[in-house]
Amino acid sequence: MVVHxxxxxxxxxxxxxxxxxxxxxxxxxxxETTCHVLRDCFRARRVWGAAMDSRxxxxxxxAEVKEWFLNNLKHDSSNDSWPIIFxxxxxxxxxxxxxxxFDEDFTWPHNPKPNxxxxxxxxxxxxxxxxxxxxxxxxxxxxxxxRPPPRIIRNSLEG
Length: 159
Ligand SMILES: [Zn+2]
Known about the structure:
Blueprint: H1 10-16, H2 34-40, H3 42-51, H4 65-73, H5 82-102, H6 113-133, H7 151-158
Helix pairs in contact: 2-3, 3-5, 5-6
Bound molecules: zinc ion.
């Protein structure tokens, strides 16, 4: 959805409904594009600052939105949990952006890291449980074969 520009930001709404304000709902400084709302806005940057560990390079944060998104969703190694954390963080930023618009009692979390880690632990736990419950689905082969029907049936079909 993000890669294909399907996130309903204010820029998208302004293109659909003339007269609609296209500026960012958080800072009101620039048009609210996908890249701005998920990465470049000060609100998003605070969340990313809390979600990223010090080993992760911020170089990818200079890329175009599609490249940024796809690069961060790639698994570097089997133990790398970053793509999941990246997805969770994007989702939380969008959720909190929407809450700030539609829920007048909402306030952006002061320290978003526990929110990100809590969701990551939940997803990780579900993945581990699923792999324990059905380990045979991973790396298993199923041989399929076909046997011709018995001769009697074949003869009756041939007339
Ligand atoms: Zn903004």
